[in-house]
Amino acid sequence: MGSHGDNFADSPLTAVAQQLHLSPTLQINEASRLRAEKGLPVVRLGFGEATFPIQKDVLAAHRDASESTSYLPVAGLLELRQSIAAFQSRRLGCPVSASQVVVAPGSKPLLFALFDILQGDVLLPRPSWVSYEPQVAHAGKKLFWVETDAVDRHTITAESLEASYTKALAEGARPRMLLINSPSNPTGRVFSEATLQTITAFCDAHEIVLLSDEIYSDIVFDETFTSAPSPCGNGAFNTGLKIMTGGLSKTYSAGGWRVGYAIVQDTAFGTTVQKALLAYASECWSAASSPAQAAAAVAFSTTPAMDNYRSQVARLHRQCARGLYCGLKECGLDVAKPQGSFYVYPSFSPYAAQLRALGIHTSLELSHWLLQECGVAALPGSAFGEVDDDSVPGGQYRLRMATSYLYFKDEAERYGTGYDLLAKATSKADADISLPLLREAIQAVHTAVEKLKAVEV
């Protein structure tokens, strides 16, 4: 008699499970941690975790609710749903009610659920956040990439949308969803109003559900975009077929608390989706953490204190992301100016000849070389859907760099000096705010580029 494992001819896993692997963001974070434990220098540009201290009122609310251990309603704590609705009503410029909000332990499970319950296959801009593609695969859906502008890797045209849609139909698929993310992970770019109009017109024409992941919507750098230039904004949320997701992790530096939300339309479509989403949630996660929901109700409030915190965070992210951008430009890299979130997306293609001479032909190989030889941790563009060939100029040498770990050396410094740093973002000009870790990051990339320049080709 063989062991139980011998009863499986090939693998005990499903075909979909065999395709899954650890998220690249978690992999690079682990590699950085192991390198640091060995006493080796590492510049952490790989992991996109917001690291500012939690706003004090929010922190106090979590502590006050720490004895709350009962399950909350599947849809979420009423006070939290009311807070989210009021905040989004102001941001979007159209009424949103608490009855349209569904809360979950992070926005990631909500996206998984939406891909599971909604019909049809998925259109996705290239590049996109590392988890979207596996989520689509997990739901058994087909994914079709929408190509973006070769320079900023974010702008979408009507032609690229139609090309992706036509390809899907030709392959026998049923494209019924388009997922977008603005500000973008990995590019740090924000959709223009013209691009948003193009996207919504396309979705309306083909009856496609527009999923808008707005997790970075409050971290926008330019004044013209502070009213959230979203396809769900300007009073248009209830037109077409739209669902919006967001969460506590990025603006509020509380990823570990795991609070996300989805907002459905006040329409028959929205009601149908919400009913299925709540049924799915009841069998999957039941409810998000009780103390975290109580704290999130304070975080999403529109009090002067929270408005000030959001402003401070956005300003610091702007200074750091654009500071890194300027440093990368000075190194001769191709990179688009970030407009939001905390990412830059440079291409090392100006040094393609040197990279090839070193035997580096892909973004993954480039990321390994940077970490091992220069102590710079960054994610390869291939993790975001980039193709490692010449189909997009410079695509095989693109890396995503996150600036979120360039403020504090450790957790003690985060709370020891973090509130003072936030206060400086209110009272001082950018030039007066010192970010030593940013300077170290720029110097590390500069050193890497100098090594490339020294390679004989």
Automatic annotation (TrEMBL):
Alphabetical list of Pfam families matching this protein: Aminotran_1_2
InterPro entries in UniProt: Aminotransferase_I/II_large, AspAT/PAT-like, NHTrfase_class1_PyrdxlP-BS, PyrdxlP-dep_Trfase, PyrdxlP-dep_Trfase_major, PyrdxlP-dep_Trfase_small
Organism encoding this protein: Sporothrix bragantina
Cofactor dependency: pyridoxal 5'-phosphate
PANTHER family documented for this protein: ASPARTATE AMINOTRANSFERASE
Superkingdom per UniProt: Eukaryota
Membership in a protein family: Belongs to the class-I pyridoxal-phosphate-dependent aminotransferase family.
Keywords for this protein: Aminotransferase, Pyridoxal phosphate, Transferase
Name the UniProt record assigns to this protein: Aminotransferase class I/classII large domain-containing protein
The Aminotransferase class I/classII large domain, residue ranges: 42-394
